[in-house]
Amino acid sequence: MTVPFETNAWNAVVGFPRWTGRATFGASSAAAGYPASNLGVLPLSRPWRSAGAARADTVLTAVFDRPRRVELVVLCRHTIDLGGVVTVTLYADAAMTSVLATATERAWPAVFTTAEVDWGGGRWWGRTYTGEEIAGYPWHLPVRIPGRHYAGAVRVAIDDTANAAGHVQVGLLELASEHQVPVNVEAGAQYGYASRVLAQESDGGAIAFRRRPKGRRFEGAIPYMPRDAAKGTWLEMRRQLDRDTPFFWWPNPADALHRLRDAYLARFADLSLQSYATPLGYDGVPLSLTEVI
Fold first, then answer.
1. DSSP code of residue 39
2. With contact defined as beta carbons under 8 Å apart, do 39 and 172 qualify?
């Protein structure tokens, strides 16, 4: 018999089931060669790009084949500038006449404590990154929408009129339901980056380096997950997604300070085997994840 559980606000969240492949995407504008259809497909390096930075140019839409339960909307690999704000609206119908819910998020929340910044460093008020620190790296903006709404369409309004590039890009608009693990990962889980730097050493010993984009990694385990969640969600994720289909990974949604560092589009690096932790009720679920770059 499975023991009932209660999920804590800080437990890890994954975007599953994902509905990105079940939506038709549109945009209020698109630069030549960067159509709205790119919002629904990989690679992230093939983005949608707006024709300008005006609010009228930076509205995205997604219409589903049938109503889907949407709790997580993620702008993956976006180029929204430091002052940008995003508003997500769920609609009950494809015609977007009946509003279900709306949520607004800053693209760049604080990522440093007051003890980590100083007056002359350029980020005293917002305590977020500077423009030079975010350049050339893929960033993700997840927006959670509670309420278990079944949406026929989604509208994403980007307010980034001061964007220095004069336009906005989004590599993927990830749309998903939300699964929050009933038991969090055990102490000792590992996280960080997997370097892809290439090094070539000459006969004389000089080394030339070529830096390539690097992705984040996560290695850990949930040793005692209720069996219904272990099989009904995680075993199904391994079966349905395998190693090629991504999902959004958010290890601690209650930790706003480190959201930009921790949350990203991931794949299973390996379809690790789950284990029977106890004869009845609980299974062990290993996690080996790598970032989609």
1. G
2. yes
Q: Which amino acid is at 84?
A: G
Give the count of beta carbons closer than 10 Å to the beta carbon of residue 148: 11
Task: For residues 73 and 87, give the distance between their C-alpha atoms in angstroms, rounded to a whole number.
Answer: 10
Distance CA 272, CA 118 (A): 45
Compute the distance between CA of residue 112 and CA of residue 108 in angstroms, rounded to an integer.
Answer: 12
188 DSSP 8-state letter: T
Per domain, the residue ranges of the chain are: 13-180, 190-291
pLDDT digits (tens, 9 = 90+) for 226-275: 999 999 999 999 999 999 999 999 999 999 999 999 999 999 999 999 99
Q: How many CB atoms lie within 10 A of CB 118?
A: 10
Regarding pTM above 0.90, the answer is yes
Q: Which CATH class is domain 13-180?
A: mainly beta
